[in-house]
Specification:
By secondary structure, the protein is an alpha/beta fold. The chain has helices at 13-16, 25-36, 50-59, 138-152, 171-182, 202-211, 226-232, 240-253, 273-283, 308-320; strands at residues 66-72, 79-84, 90-99, 106-111, 115-116, 134-135, 158-161, 194-198, 216-220, 259-265, 288-294, 324-328. The protein binds iron/sulfur cluster.
């Protein structure tokens, strides 16, 4: 596969392009073409000398990801893009439209993938059922944003690292993508518009708190005790308490950034009032949101979604104890793009 320029840290662009000292301003020009003007090829960069464009073309790719499918949900307008990589692998990401409460304007969120397949094998998730193929490169993570803009003709407002894969198991590529997405020289997203989700990889959460630009963190907790969590997320070797400790450390390091806990409600497993009380005891008084997720059934898996009544009662316990709770509306289930449904 050709090297993508997007995989090279900005500080190295001058060196890899062998730019003489007096021409290092060319780096800024290339960044403007790539990020501000969203050039699709090096040929588009008409303010660069022809020889530099040839060098760029010979050494790097710019847009390696091909969008080969775009399915739109008839129920809620969410859509699933399917991509083909340079080595002919396929994966998907999901565009989620919503309305701003203040202005009524449409806003787009993009649920990005970070791996093809997922080795974490959470018991309820379609991504964990298929074979793990490989990590996505930083460029393939970022190009999903550009493809979503091409498909919709609009700017993507927020980025959720919640598609296929465990982002923190692809730490190196995710970290550079975060730096580039947040950098004013790159995509320029604000801290509140980027959320990294993890199933709770404790060492990587701590590392991220030291090395990443400020971004929101979402943690898939799905249980209030270790025994239940092992049934739902059997490959996770950290206890609930260890995960929470790392999350509080992340929050402190990132300036009390809000953390979201994802909690998929599964009938008879983690949806009791006692569990809700236990969860609220662990999280009350912290700057957190809890997203309660309606389970999207996956063929071949025995889990069932909690009843509407159980979900509302669970939510009631948490809100009564002063916790901020969102009942996440299921989106994209009819195009297999719902939470936990992404496969390749
Ligand atoms: S829930 Fe996330 S970490 Fe778990 S198998 Fe699915 S994609 Fe992987």
């Amino acid at each position: 596969m050709p090297n993508s320029l997007l995989d090279v840290p900005f500080g190295e662009w001058g060196r890899v392009l062998e730019l003489p000292e007096k021409e290092t301003y060319r780096v800024k020009q290339i960044q403007e073409w790539v990020f501000a003007r969203r050039a699709k090829s090096f040929d588009d960069m008409t303010s660069l000398p022809a020889l530099l464009r040839v060098k760029l073309k010979e050494s790097f790719s710019l847009r390696a990801l091909k969008t080969i499918g775009h399915d739109v949900s008839q129920k809620d307008g969410s859509s699933r893009m399917t991509f083909e990589t340079g080595d002919k692998k396929t994966f998907s990401s999901v565009i989620l439209p919503s309305r701003s409460r203040e202005t009524g304007e449409e806003r787009l969120s993009l649920c990005l993938s970070t791996q093809i397949g997922c080795a974490w094998r959470c018991a309820f998730c379609a991504s964990g059922k298929v074979h793990f193929v490989r990590n996505l490169f930083s460029s393939e993570i970022m190009e999903q944003v550009m493809c979503a803009e091409d498909v919709t003709g609009k700017k993507v407002d927020s980025l959720l690292f919640m598609g296929m894969g465990e982002p923190l198991a692809n730490y190196h590529h995710v970290l550079w993508a975060l730096r580039c997405l947040r950098s004013p020289l790159g995509f320029g997203y604000g801290a509140r518009h980027v959320t990294v989700s993890t199933s709770g990889l404790v060492p990587q959460i701590l590392k991220l708190s030291q090395e990443s630009p400020k971004v929101n963190l979402a943690v898939s907790l799905h249980a209030a005790d270790d025994e239940t969590r092992r049934k739902i997320m059997p490959k996770s070797s950290w206890s609930v308490q260890q995960i929470l400790k790392s999350v509080w450390a992340y929050q402190k390091q990132m300036g009390n950034v809000r953390v979201t806990f994802e909690y998929v409600l599964l009938k008879g497993l983690n949806d009791s009032l006692r569990t809700a009380q236990r969860l609220s005891n662990m999280l009350r008084g912290r700057n957190v949101w809890i997203n309660l997720i309606e389970y999207n059934p996956v063929p071949g898996l025995a889990f069932q979604k909690a009843s509407r009544d159980a979900m509302e009662k669970f939510e009631g316990v948490l809100t009564k104890r002063g916790l901020f709770v969102r009942m996440r509306k299921p989106q994209g289930a009819d195009i297999k793009a719902g939470c936990g449904q992404l496969s390749y």
